[in-house]
Amino acid sequence: MRNSLLIIISTAAFVLASPLLAQEKHEVTVTSIVVPVRVMDGDNFVENLTVEDFDVLENLVPQKIQALYLVKKADIQRQQGSQEFNPAVSRSFFLLFQLTEYNPKLTDLIDYLFRQVLLPADTMVIQTPMKSYSLSPQALARKPKEELAEEMNSLLKKDIKTGNTEYNSLLNDLKRIVRNISGTSMRGDIESDSATSTSGLEFMLTRYKDAVARMEEHRLIDERKIFRFAQALKRVEGQKNVFFIYQREFRPEIQTVVLNSLLDSYQDQPNVMSDLQDMFQFYSRDLSVDAELLKKAFADASINFNFIFMNKEPENISGLAMREQSEDVFRAFSQVVTATGGIVDTSQNPVSGFKHAIESSEKYYLLYYSPENYQPDGQFKNILVRVKNPNYSVLHRLGYFAN
Fold first, then answer.
1. Which of 177, 286, 173 is nearest to 223 (CA)?
2. How far apart are CA 118 and CA 149, in angstroms?
3. What pLDDT digit, counting tens, does each position of 326-349 carry?
4. Could you give all domains of the chain from N- to C-terminal order, each with its CATH number?
5. pTM greater than the 0.90 cutoff
6. End-to-end Cα separation, the chain, in angstroms
7. Rounded distance, CA 142 to CA 309, Å?
């Protein structure tokens, strides 16, 4: 796009190579640990706490808090403690869209981000199913926010529709195959192969298996890329707010009553029986993600990870059973949220979840402590932060690697 201030930076999922990440600094041995902490009384942030209200434990060993900072957006509101630090409170936003279909409500999400959230010094990366776009503070200053929002909305809509063309084509193909196997149709859309003959059924089962495998390739979440994404963000200073916007997914399957009928009809044909039992048994994606490893990687990078799970109801289509295919993704990334102090939202409206996550991230405490006898042994150190009032909930990162 000519004169665009939204710079395309990458096409690989979860891999960001923006100018933001290019500003890396040489790592030094960590002697002071900083823990962003959010203390909530219901939905309200508790902002009148002092050092005396907190307890910090590392591997269950109590630690002395050296300093406390109260931060609102990118400003330090208050500080307390025996030692003074220089906290990095700059803000970086990363929005990762993993969607199979465009939702018009995303326009409101982008408008809210540009008009209500972004500050002049903020940086932002938005990743669509096609590309990644980076917005620098300089770009934000040179162009009206309304124009940038309109530009980003146009790119997001185009990329979601273009990036999922093959996936949605495969999904429609699966619906046709299952309808034919079931002996039903929509609007008279029947394949030429007869699902009632042995050769026709075997052909349809083969097509179904191939379409499912190809669809999985389009939805595969690569653990290595996610891990590298977390490692890259570890080198980014300040607040790192990640929003993973994911859409609930369903896969067309044959209805149980039809499956049972087919199994009865082909009992004397072991090859068909085997295919039926193999293809239409209860299916759950075997997601190749080590949730424990990701939890520690994102916590170590001190990322505020938020999971916006866009819920939707399954289609009601004659002859099809639409089975949930998002449980594994939801389970894995919900654990990452817990390990980083973010939030999970499961509403049908992505704007409400995004606003909730933004509001939750805008106020927080920074607690500093130095572990006694610190050794860079590469082991993961668990952090536990408690407050005196048992009615408050405390959100913070799980721990860090002592590297």
1. 286
2. 11
3. 888 899 999 999 999 999 999 888
4. 7-14+33-166+217-254+278-401 (3.40.50)
5. no
6. 43
7. 33
